[in-house]
Amino acid sequence: MKGLILSGGKGTRLRPLTFTSAKQLVPVANKPVLFYGIEALVAAGVRDLGIVIGHTGDEIRAAVGDGSQWGAEVTYIPQDAPLGLAHAVKISRDFMADDPFVMYLGDNLVKDGITTFVDEFRSGSHNAQILLAKVANPQQFGVAELGPDGEVVRLEEKPAEPRSDLALVGVYLFDHNIFRAVDSISPSPRGELEITDAISWLIETNLAVRPHVIRGWWKDTGKVEDMLEANRIVLDTFTRNIEGETDSDSVFEGKVVLEPGAVVRKSVVRGPCIIGSGTLIESTFVGPYTAVQKDCRIAGCEIENSIVLEGSSLEAIPDRVEGSLIGRGVSIHRGTRLPKAYRFVVGDNSEVDIF
Fold first, then answer.
1. Of 198, 2, 190, which Cα lies nearest the Cα of 85?
2. Deepest in the core among 53, 73, 198, 214, taking most CB within 10 A?
């Protein structure tokens, strides 16, 4: 069995970060989201991986390499434009060589992994299997309706009146018949080949499509709010591990991970949180659910429930920073010149809240 990870797309909901960076490489608890998907596939025994890449392909290649760090083998499949999930399947046919495969959306997190899901497909005789989760707002997802025997009988994309509360999670298993399906469908009104249309074709052709309903949490990390929630969920699984440099004036409470090479002085650090190597925390309160990547500097601040990417600096900010996603190489500091005023250098599609 092979794996197909989708890592193209423009990541419009995470702009401005994704103007210059792949959304799949934005970190959750200091690890790129994409890496969680690779780990889930490898844990399920799937090590021959194809990764579909788009305009951020060079960055994905640099981060993932040949896959050997996970004991996997990676083949990159360029997609000229984000023309839909079914289009990504279509262009991957040569790599698949008609083998069964797992398709995993690269910005998804599934708490309990996909091993049970994959084993279920391997031991069965159906043609496709889709991962589903119960949601409170099915109008915002692709929704599956199940028949009396538990089979999938209908899929609808963001229905106004959902027939169920079972949403497509973003992990699928297919045999070779999916290639017949993607060759048989037409682009949707938004100009994309939709995977829901391809699966609907399988159903209409009387091929067996089975569901697998997960019980644990899952997150599509396409929005800032979802990134922060995923960060909180993953940090809650951490155990305390302080390996960096500390002083007697600092206090550490709860599940704090201080990586080797990080320095904390005259500060209070309250977990769950993680502070990356090469980062300096000084005269600062780091609150719960904060992830600070490597080579940052935070001094004279209070911060919690936030993600700070590598190489950024926060200094002498008078009010607490919370619920924030701060990109790479960002500098936020309090000026000393009079008259006092706010001064911003802010890129396209940014958001600044002042309370």
1. 198
2. 198
Picking from 39, 20, 15, 43, the residue whose alpha carbon sits closest to that of residue 29 is 39
**Same structural domain for residues 149 and 246?**
no
Residue 127 confidence (pLDDT) above 50: yes
Per the structure, the count of domains in the chain is 2
Query: Does residue 311 lie in a domain region?
Result: yes
Mapping DSSP to helix (H, G, I), strand (E, B) and coil, where does residue 270 land? strand
Instruction: State the Cα–Cα distance between residues 181 and 353, nearest whole angstrom.
Output: 46
- pLDDT tens-digit readout, 88-116: 999 999 999 989 999 999 888 887 889 98
Can you list the alpha helix ranges (DSSP code H) found in the chain?
17-20, 33-43, 57-64, 85-90, 93-96, 115-123, 177-184, 195-204, 224-235
3-state secondary structure of 218: strand
Residue type, 287: G
Q: Between 159 and 304, name the one with better pLDDT.
A: 304
What confidence category does residue 353 fall into, taking pLDDT thresholds of 50, 70 and 90? low
Q: Does residue 55 share a domain with residue 158?
A: yes
- Please give the model's pTM, rounded to 2 decimal places: 0.86
> Quick check: 7 and 74 in contact, CB under 8 A?
no
Answer yes or no: is 345 within a domain.
no
Which residue segment(s) compose the domain that 145 sits in? 2-220
